[in-house]
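User: I'm putting together notes for a lab meeting next week and I want to include a structural view of one of the chains we've been expressing. I don't have a solved structure, so I'd like a prediction I can at least talk through. The sequence is below, exactly as it appears in our construct file.
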Amino acid sequence: MELLQILEGWRNKLLPPEELKNQILEVSKSRRLICDNCEHYSENKRKTNWRSLRMDEHCTDCGCPLDAKTKCLSCKCPKDKWLAVATEEEHEEIKSIINGK
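Assistant: Thanks for the context. Below is the predicted structure for the 101-residue chain, given as structure tokens.
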């Protein structure tokens, strides 16, 4: 995940732009359903005696925290289990919103 996408995910989790709140919520819910059943979901790995120093819920493939990754509209799963929902134009608009422009 690139730095801008990390920022987008955390921004959407902590201070979602008003005009994107509903979309972020819907997208995040559907992505979490997929991630919660994935073999790379850290909680599923813990059930099989897998040990990690990280206590957050994350993807063990890409390392991303799921709270942020699933709320990033321009992000996609590295295993292609879900895709980005933002078009290139929307991605540019999201960047503008994040940068406060």
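A couple of points you could mention at the meeting. The CA atoms of residues 61 and 79 lie 8 Å apart. The chain has one domain: 3-14+21-98.

User: Perfect, that's what I needed.
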